[in-house]
Amino acid sequence: MQSAGSKAGTAHQAHRTARTALGEAVRRGHAAKNAAALAKPPRTEEDENEVEPYSVDEVQSLLLEVNKRRNSARWMLALALGLRQGETLGLRWSDVELDNEYLKLRRNRLRPKYEHGCGEAAPCGRKAGYCAARVRVRRETKNTKPRAGRRAVPLPGPLVVMLRSHREAQARERTAAGNLWTESEYVFTKPLGGPLSPNTDHHDWKRLLEDAGVRDGRLHDARHAAGTVLMLLGVPDRVIDQITGWEPGGAARMRARYLHVTDPMLKEAARKIERAIREAPEKLAVDKDQDDEA
After folding, report:
1. Distance between CA 277 and CA 23 in Å, rounded?
2. Using one digit for the tens of pLDDT, what is the confidence trace for 247-264?
């Protein structure tokens, strides 16, 4: 495929699809072996460029700046829990259980896609997204497909407080806007109501980085940083997988790829090894004394 001009990512996806399909054929007894599993998948650009999540210090700088902004809880969900953009923007108040301190992730908000509505007789000459009579051709949200994607995520106490405050601020905005308010069920909205645009959200993220004095990066890098912080806090792997929504089969691979082993973790590992080395002779001596007494 690559020799024919396809990108490495496209070839990698084709290999993964073939491997899954043939694996199912083997399971059902229609094939003797999975030939795709024996083939080495092509390396993608993502494989070659190691992800550089934000450090704990950078995350702290971002959190300080977040508290000064409208929709601050939106960024806290990304930095503290590593929620995807679509998951966060797709949240509705019916998904948030503040009294029970968790939220349910069930749908993703999609980037809008438009077609011209001006007609061929009098074309506006603009891109479809800027056409005054544009017609939306992609639905607003879709249900999260993977089983791991549909999940409940625990809310730390400070996030519960922040979301309660956010709901009160949203109610004040609704009152101030009056008839101009666009009613919706979304947790995060525009100043006059209605769901946030993923494109606007992206630009807000870039401004947040600049205002916080943190290096430029993708919003997805905050997701990786959140996973690293969860590891630093000693959160079990199974719980990290639940929070981040990684599939059970690929969770170990995702952790190895995205969750960086930080200096504090290495030092803690060294301390544990040191204790094991120091305690081993002492335990051996105790066991020997017990044997002698017996």
Report:
1. 45
2. 555 545 555 554 444 455
